[in-house]
Amino acid sequence: MKFVSRKDFFAAVLCFGLVLLATAPALAQTFGKTYEEILDRAKKEAELRLWWEVPGERGVGEQFEAAFKKRFGFTPRISLTPVTSPDSLTRFLTEVRVGRIDADLLYAGASDVAGRPERLALFEDIDAPLTKIFSPKFKGVEGILKNLAPWKRPYSVDVTTLASGIVYNTKKTSADQLPRTYAEFAEGKGFTDPKWKGNFAINSIGPASPLGDMAIQNYWDIEKQKKVLQAILANKPLIKRSSGDLRMAVALGEVAAATGNIGGTEGLRKEGYPIQTKLFEDVMTVGSIGLTIPKGAKSPNLALLYLAFVLEDGLPLVERINGEGTFLDPRSQLAKALKSMPKAKILEWTPEEIVAGNRDRARKVLQALMP
Amino acid sequence: MSSRSFAASAQGVQRIGIPSNAVNAFRFEIVLFAKILCKQKIIYWTETATLYAFGQYRLGSKVVDARLRFGKQSRLLTIVIAVVALLLLGAPLVILFLTSLRPPSALPLDPGMSLDNFVAIFSSPRMLTVLVNTAIYGAGALILSLTLGAIIAFLVERTDMPFRSTIYSAMLVSLAVPTMLKAFGWVLLLSPGLGWINYLLRQGFSLEGSSGPLNIYTMTGMIFVTGIGLSNNAFLMLSPLFRQMNPEFEEAAQTSGSKGLTVLRKVTLPLLLPGLLSALIYFGMVLVQVMETALAIGVPGGIRVLSVHIYLLTKAEDGIPLYALAAAFGVVLLLLALSLMGVYFWLTRQQDRFSVVTGKSFRPRQLKLGRWKYIAFSFVMIVIACYAMPMLILVWASLVKVYQAPSFEALNQVSLQSYFRTLANPQVQQSAANTLTLMVIAPTLAVFIAFCASWFSVKRKMRWVEVFAITPMGVPNVVLALALFLVYVMTPIHGSIWVLIIAHIVAHLPFTTRVLSAALLQLHKELEEAAHVTGATTARTLRTVTVPLILPAVVNGWLWAFSATLRDFTFAIFLMTGRNMVLPSAMWVLWNVPDISGTAALGTVYMCGFVFVTMAARYVDQRQRKKAGWEAN
Question: What is the complex's ipTM, to 2 decimals?
Answer without folding.
Answer: 0.71
